[in-house]
Automatic annotation (TrEMBL):
The species this protein was found in: Paenibacillus barcinonensis
4'-phosphopantetheinyl transferase domain ranges (all copies): 106-182
InterPro entries for the chain: 4-PPantetheinyl_Trfase_dom (IPR008278), 4-PPantetheinyl_Trfase_dom_sf (IPR037143), AASDHPPT_N (IPR055066), P-Pant_transferase_sf (IPR050559), Ppantetheine-prot_Trfase_dom (IPR004568)
Domain 4'-phosphopantetheinyl transferase N-terminal stretches: 18-100
A Gene Ontology molecular function term of the record: holo-[acyl-carrier-protein] synthase activity
Gene Ontology cellular component list: cytosol
Pfam families: AASDHPPT_N, ACPS
Family of this protein: Belongs to the P-Pant transferase superfamily. Gsp/Sfp/HetI/AcpT family.
Protein name: 4'-phosphopantetheinyl transferase superfamily protein
Keywords: Antibiotic biosynthesis, Magnesium, Metal-binding, Transferase
Length: 263
């Protein structure tokens, strides 16, 4: 079963929690945390690994501190001894998000929503996405930009190719350009000039599709898109299996309890 967990960062982490968590993460993570100028950046980095280790330990039965990680050629992390257990983590602003479980490729992205020059979309979005964004009312365009951005990031993180797949080479749009509240839309990914990749939150089918004289492989990627709060957008992607209807919001106290029980 695929799960999505979201942890809101505290303004201040209790010293007892912080020192315990620092002994729990990798030496590289501790060194990275020490280099950050802003404490919030250190919190995000360390707590992201803590949440990941605890969750993967619960899924695999391997003690959390004994888990070893590697990366593929494009930088996507995986477990060394349990590479079949998928996971992906993201953090931005006040939130950390983790997707894990099942057997599918998975990706997650969270972004803090801030005013942005929408011309950046012309560099990174497909023509179809730019047209969709431009058609939005002016007061919804910034929010829509972050929804599309997080969906695209969750997809490239799921397939694990990083930016070797240009962001403008595929489009993620509402299926059939359906109408209705954005939180309720079903999102579809089309890879321009290649396979058409479609996703539905609760669909389970895969097929091979013949289009324009090409044998295009169609994978039914599922997408989830919801704001975590007024200032943060969350998106998730899975190549198979059902995504949860909502993320599990976990608290720092819950994480610490799981940490104590699992170490």
């Amino acid at each position: 079963m695929i799960t999505i967990q979201a942890l809101q960062l505290p303004a201040v982490l209790p010293d007892a929690f912080w020192h315990s968590f620092l002994t729990f993460v990798s030496e590289e993570r501790r060194a990275q945390a020490a280099r950050f100028v802003h404490q919030a950046d250190a919190y995000r980095s360390v707590l992201g690994e803590v949440l990941t280790r605890i969750t993967l330990s619960e899924l695999t039965g391997v003690p959390a501190k004994e888990l070893s990680f590697s990366r593929n050629a494009y930088g996507k992390p995986c477990l060394v001894h349990n590479p079949h257990v998928p996971f992906n983590v993201s953090h931005s602003g006040d939130w950390i998000a983790l997707i894990a479980g099942g057997t599918a490729e998975v990706g997650v992205d969270v972004e803090k929503i801030a005013p942005i020059d929408l011309q950046i979309a012309e560099r990174f979005f497909s023509p179809q996405e730019n047209a969709y964004l431009a058609a939005m009312p002016a007061d919804q365009q910034n929010h829509t930009f972050y929804r599309l951005w997080t969906l695209k990031e969750s997809y490239i993180k799921a397939i694990g190719t990083g930016l070797s797949l240009p962001l403008d080479s595929f489009a993620i749009l509402p299926k059939g350009l359906g109408q209705g509240p954005a939180d309720e839309l079903c999102w579809q990914c089309t890879q321009t000039g290649h396979a058409e990749l479609t996703g539905q939150n609760q669909s389970n089918s895969q097929s091979v599709h013949q289009a324009e004289g090409r044998n295009d492989r169609v994978m039914q990627h599922r997408f989830y898109s919801q704001p975590l709060d007024a200032q943060h957008m969350l998106a998730a992607c899975a190549s198979d299996g059902e995504l949860p209807m909502n993320p599990e919001i976990v608290t720092l106290d819950q994480i610490y309890t799981r940490f104590v029980e699992g170490r």
